[in-house]
Amino acid sequence: MKTKAIRLYGENDLRLEEFELPEIKDDEILAHIISDSICMSSHKAALQGAKHKRVPDDCAQNPIILGHEFCGTIVKVGKKWQDKFKEGEKFAIQPAHNRNGSLCAPGYSYKYCGGGATYVIIPADTLEMDCLLKYNGDAFFYGSLSEPMSCVIGGAHANYHTKGGSYVHDMGIKEGGAAAILAGAGPMGLGAVDYLITCDRRPSLLIVTDIDSARLARAAEVVTVEKAAKNGVKLMYVNTANYEDPLAYMKKFAPEGFDDVFVFAPVKPVVEMGDALLGKDGCLNFFAGPTNTEFSAMFNFYNVHYASTHIVGTSGGNTDDMREALAMMEKGLINPAGMITHICGLDAVAETTINLDKIPGGKKLCYTNISLPLTAISDFAELGKSDPMFAKLAEIVGENGGLWCKEAEDYLLANAKAI
Q1: Considering just the CA atoms, what is the radius of gyration of the chain in Å?
Q2: What is the pLDDT of residue 156?
């Protein structure tokens, strides 16, 4: 079977190519990809090429398919897995296999498996690690967003706290405590806010900071303070650029310091602000992944010793985190649609991925079987003046509070130009 795919050959060398997939083996699955959201981690992989820890050294000769936030349907099942999977079933994928310490992952390491494609072969590694997950939701884009949501869920689970005189780590954020998400008005931050105010272990206070007023305003529209209040959480969005001493301002609301601080940007002053906000037994989660291997920041080790402050870092979620994300979406508890600000077809993925750090907005969602330039949802109405398809999309998302939705996905898939 032929597939069209975005293949990585080296640093900033992404190519949309058509090629033949081999016949699947008994321990593999042939899958049809429908949606793939573009992650900043893919941008980093494109930027670094073979220097990236997950990308094979020989990618110039054996290119990999890029993209790891994908959802689709099963086309053909190898004999080994026919008791577990059936043709036509929807699936999502957990790319972080963690198999025997290997960093190999779909979207980074495999010739025939990645989200930026029309058809792929799910490898034995994925299946043996139970990382191909059945998805019962009604929209493909939610399945794609389960991977980034699993990352923020994993971050919340990785935090820990202790009791005086005990060395036992109580895993997870402090229930009823004070939490902060710094540089948190981006797409991943929005997902984290939605999760923290909805999960079964919620803080009583959550402050989300950024220095971009427009992003903060949109964040407040997508995840509202009213929704948080209904769940017993005081949610605040704070533009730290508006305060001469933002630390002092934030500590007014948590005089004893914060129990959990999440840092969503690899910026030295942001990390150091997070450290300064910590209270006794406070946990700082360095969520943002830097590209600079020498990145560092100051950390108060007096407080490490006497106030038991500590730091954790997470890179992706695990399979249980993704199952939790899928279950919460299927029940309507969280709605990560607010992450999405742009849509595109497979032919826009290479340029979008390479320039992702320069494109404003949140998540860029690709539908891999169509041809479409990267398009902001906010531009639908203007484009609709000359294009009936965008006019209808503008109407659909307008009726959904400006957010991408199943109805918009269905209409796009039925009316966009095939690639």
Answers
A1: 21
A2: 97
